[in-house]
Model the fold of this input.
Amino acid sequence: MTVTAARGGQGQPAVGQPLLEISHVAKSFPGVRALDDVSFTLRHGEVLTLAGENGAGKSTLLGILGGSLSPDEGSVTVDGVRRDEFSPRRALAEGVMIAHQEPAIVPQLTVEQNLLLGKTATERRAAAAAVDGALADVAAMGFPLDRRQRLTRMSPAQRHALTIAKAFAFGAKVVALDEPTTSMLEHNVEAVLDRVRHLAAERGIGVIFVSHKMPEVMAVSDRVVVLRDGRVGYESPIAQTSTDEIVRRMVGRELLSFRRQHPVSSHAPVVFTATGVTRPDSPVSNDLSVRAGEVVGIAGLVGSGRTEFLRALVHADPGCGGRLTLDGEVVRIGSPNGSRDAGIAFIPEDRKKQGLALQMPAYANIALTAAPDLVGSGPFTSPRRQIAVSEEVGRSLALKPANVRLKARQYSGGNQQKLVIAKWLRRGSRVFLFDEPTKGVDVGGKAEIYGLIDQLAAAGNAVVVVSSDLPEIISLSDRVLVMRNGRFISEHVGDDINEHSLVASAMGIAKGTA
Amino acid sequence: MTSDTAAGRPPRHFHVNLQALGIFIAAAAIFAIFGVLNSNFLTLGNLRDVAVSACVNALIGIGLTFVIITGGIDLSVGSIASFTGIVTANMMVNQGVSPVPALIAGLVLGFLAGVVNGLLITVLKLPPFIATLGTMSVYQGLAYVVTSGTPVYNVPQPFVLMLNSYIGGVPIVVVVVIVVALLAWLLLRRTVFGQNVIATGGSEETAWLSGVRVSRVKILVYGLSGTLAALAGLVVVARISAAQSEAGSPYLLTAIAAAVIGGANLMGGEGRIAGTLVGALILGALTNGLTLLNVPSFYEQIVTGLVVLIAVAIDQGSRGWPSLRGRRNQAEAAQLTPGVDGTTTDRPAEPAVGSRASE
Done:
């Protein structure tokens, strides 16, 4: 593939002919079958939206398309040639370009250097026209850039626009845009989508568009494919469907059979309140109150600020504010150390990096919160005692393997999560903040963790669960708050806790849109 | 899942023991080789010399082991040794301070110098390498300033006797190192502080979110490193009965080498006091043995460098298997060999939405 061929010189491929064929693709990770027999076809000049909830398999599919993952089963065929090797190099050679949500740019380099990044010297000499074209595209999107400008001082929107233009610039046949407009203002979005449509039609490029913003989906695409639980759940020309229908197809699945054994009683007192919770990186302030025995779920899209809200509650980042009360008493904390001593437990999202020190034995991890039961009261501590108490805690959680001398890295995902929870069980914590408690945990492990959350609530504690897994939120929560753009925008109780209502709220397409 | 971990456990324990034992075996081999090559090497008197010569590296290396476990590095230890050595000697010789108060003052000065490192790293958020690269130069400069670069001679005899004499044939300094090592081991393995040090190096974010006061841990660790560097500096002063402005600088790289040979992982989270002691002994044995064999001293540096490289390569190699396995766990479950890591439980037939929930 030569670079000069990229711009218009290729002869007009017939618009509407099959370009990319995804055929029976399956992919598993430990604990999750991310893709399960996915097939669809992308045609020349077509813009196809790939829709689906978080975890439906979109990222995995883009990974396979871009060559960074290889499928367990199935095939990818580009322009009639079946791909026999999965590598990013191979995908690029086929003309498959992925513009990721996080712009793949080097800020210290100039616009032109970024466009040419990864090209060989020969390719660079032939690339002048492609660079000019990309600059024209960026300008058409509403971001006139100088090719000698460094990206250090450019806004995220400018970086995104450049990434999109680059994806189209060098002999692209298939371009996948992953949430390309998250950082952009409305009038820019329109210009960007116009340009994308124009490029697709002009050069017969097939575009895969991934977005949570339904109005954009309706505006830009020809067709929509909905992924659900790793399968194609729905496929339709955009003219023959509606926003409501797409959302319904994204979430419509069999309900989870887990039911709380101990829902909160209607006259339980408030245990935990947080008012005016702020972060240094956002002007928004949020309030939260949780009753004894209540599980409050926090739903929202990835990036909506749920994790940041929990981190603000325990002052995990400097400069967070807010007034907290526990059992009616004001608690003053300035760091996780203070929140730990006040009785607030935080079980973070990334257990390998934030929840555990993987190279330490399980018992030392459990002792890390310095519960007096485990470490004693003085400066000295006895591993023997830590092991004995940890084994006891482990038994109550059905920890497998039960030998707490093993290093934390030797446990499976679900049992690692139990270790993270175990850290807080002997601290006398009254508030439990869970962030994605069952991410990457297999089915059996999930059930156990749900049971544990239920028990913690039943013991009169206040429990908050952030999760992107809607069935999880729905089956665990007494009450659900939906966060959008860093702010709680709706509260759901009773029958209003259902997938359609929560997704609609999270995407801002229902009443109460922020 | 039970079956697979039951199968996976015994080799793991075996492996840990091998890793800890490896350094002792290597040390024994080096001693044996020199013993064969030169009959004087394994005499009691010579072994005592080896032990004494290892002491300075051992002291600095123990402090560095703590720093390295937190994932940091302290490049200023040599300068702190020089600085505190010349300040203490100057106090005794030119200001008439008696040895014990001077010694205590020297140790406090070393502690403070280390605390400054810790504050630069935690409050100003400087990377440890940069922070201590800067203070390495500052403390070295201060060491020159104290006496305008001139050495301090005629250090009082009582001070020399304190750190450079023998009780019943046993060098006092060796006893000091053994006591320091025991205390350091207790601190690392039997106190909450020690566990926090290891956790901070293993995953700082985890430690922080668990309520560990990470900054305080680091400041104290650099303070400890400064204190032990100061003690090492005083040992050097006692050994030559004089203080020079640059006396400590040769020990920076060798002390790091001792810790690394002993298994300290510069990525943090791992390190052993006993390992560092043996590392220092190996370096001492190399210097001593090569001198006995009349090998020109230039070659000694080459051999020392090679030993460091070999030791770390072996350590990485012994780590290689489990880390490969860990990486594979995260990758495709489909490619796991049966029986490893519970493929059956990890591959639910249905997507994991928790449909098989509790009754």
Q: What stands out?
A: The radius of gyration of chain A is 25 Å.
